[in-house]
Amino acid sequence: MSNSTDDLAILPATSEPYQIVYEDDVLLVVNKPAQLLTVPGRHPQNQDCLIRRVQREFPFAEVVHRLDYDTSGLVILPLTKRVLSDISKQFQARTVQKHYVAVVEGKLAKAKGVIDLAIAADEQRRPLYKICPQQGKPSQTRYQLLSYNAGTNQSRVKLEPVTGRSHQLRVHMLALGHAMLGDTLYAPQAIAAKSPRLMLHAEYIRFVHPLSAQVMEFNAGAPF
Fold first, then answer.
1. Annotated catalytic residue: which of 68, 70, 86, 183?
2. Which GO terms describe its molecular function (predicted)?
3. 68 is an active site residue
């Protein structure tokens, strides 16, 4: 998912540090905290971000994919141009596997399935996105119910984006009738207010190491 939050909004950066999950000479895998941009925003006050923090320690780190400001979880950061190019091609070929964990309102009607709904920018409500069969880009998300809490009427779900559209997971779950807790962009206010953060975390990622050709797999449990 990419950063596509309002360019004019001030997004205060969390003081929570990122965590290094894996490190070698050519790449890092880090766990990004929620409420931190992956790259600098256009607003002058949105310069504190994951890549700038990482570059203080690893000056050659570069961004090959992003997580939204509100989303926490695993991010691959190449340290060389060759590795950047290779992993970028893996993302383009959709061979990088990743899944997220989210907490949503309500009980899912089906325990698993695929959401196949085209997504387009909502020109009337930027920076939001919407389901739009006419102008939207093809978008698919696999989902699986992990657990349901009848007391709170909330479901914990595993989400696997087949495509990587902006805000895809939030928009797709909303289209199913299950807004994410803490989602101040899309959820009704009562649901957004149920959590101080967006309940969405990039928990798992799998890719091939560009130099060793080894399959690399990483898990970072959701902090909620």
1. 68
2. catalytic activity, acting on RNA; pseudouridine synthase activity; RNA binding
3. yes
